[in-house]
């Protein structure tokens, strides 16, 4: 990691923060590498959940196009590959990732949000996906999977701002909350309280199941159940449940 991203893991909760507020947390090559390094580090830590946020008044103002000045197409391609690697590292994290977004969430900021397992937004948050208007291509895959092809096309083609309430109605974020930090802490505590093995298997089963039909999805879930039974930690859950219901 570098100064672009910070990571702290305390009591099972990892806090990853985009830390370039002077540039509105615009994503450059160094931030791409730092994000991937941060999530690689989370995967070998004792974290049970990740809160992903941005320092300053803006979550992320998108890609830092200034760094492309004077670069050739080969360099830009490598930069884009680095961004895909960063988003993939977020998405593949072994434990749940909750994005806490506020202010402007533009382009790459939306990609980061969509790579998380789910997102909470502060009131006043505004999304935009202006890639075609910047003369580039991006956000064509995760966005349509979250909100549907036709709405994704509208946002990409028109660069229309999307308010937090509408983003929630479309499923881009799960909830709009009055106190983002408090809501994030509450959600993280709830996730961290669950057995981490069951959470990890649940995350994997949902993700893999979303890529196939129901019959194959049930087989994916059964495979997760078999792995959970072999681990034996399910007995602790049964004991806790029976103790709580006495």
From TrEMBL:
Keyword terms, alphabetized: Isomerase, Lipid metabolism, Lyase
InterPro entries for this protein: ClpP/crotonase-like_dom_sf (IPR029045), Enoyl-CoA_hydra/iso (IPR001753)
GO biological process: fatty acid beta-oxidation
Transmembrane parts of this sequence: none
Gene Ontology MF, one: isomerase activity
PANTHER family for this protein: (7AS)-7A-METHYL-1,5-DIOXO-2,3,5,6,7,7A-HEXAHYDRO-1H-INDENE-CARBOXYL-COA HYDROLASE (PTHR11941:SF169), ENOYL-COA HYDRATASE-RELATED (PTHR11941)
Assigned protein family: Belongs to the enoyl-CoA hydratase/isomerase family.
Name listed for the protein in its UniProt record: Enoyl-CoA hydratase/isomerase family protein
Naturally occurring in which organism (per UniProt): Amycolatopsis dendrobii
């Amino acid at each position: 990691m570098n100064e672009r991203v910070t990571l702290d893991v305390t009591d099972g909760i990892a806090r990853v923060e985009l830390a370039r507020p002077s540039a509105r947390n615009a994503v450059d090559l160094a931030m791409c590498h730092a994000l991937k390094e941060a999530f690689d580090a989370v995967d070998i830590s004792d974290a049970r959940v990740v809160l992903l946020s941005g320092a300053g008044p803006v979550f992320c103002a998108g890609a830092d196009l200034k760094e492309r000045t004077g670069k050739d197409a080969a360099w830009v391609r490598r930069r884009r590959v680095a961004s895909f690697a960063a988003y993939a590292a977020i998405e593949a994290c072994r434990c749940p990732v909750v994005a806490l977004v506020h202010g402007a969430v533009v382009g790459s900021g939306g990609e980061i949000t969509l790579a998380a397992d789910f997102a909470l937004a502060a009131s006043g948050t505004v999304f935009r996906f202006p890639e075609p208007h910047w003369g580039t291509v991006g956000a064509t895959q995760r966005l349509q999977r979250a909100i549907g092809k036709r709405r994704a096309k509208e946002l990409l083609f028109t660069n229309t701002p999307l308010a937090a309430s509408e983003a929630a109605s479309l499923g881009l974020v799960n909830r709009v909350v009055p106190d983002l930090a408090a809501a994030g802490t509450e959600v993280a505590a709830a996730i961290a309280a669950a057995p981490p093995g069951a959470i990890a298997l649940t995350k994997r089963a949902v993700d893999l199941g979303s890529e196939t039909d129901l019959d194959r999805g049930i087989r994916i879930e059964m495979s997760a159940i078999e792995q959970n039974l072999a681990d034996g930690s399910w007995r602790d859950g049964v004991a806790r449940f029976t103790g709580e219901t006495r």
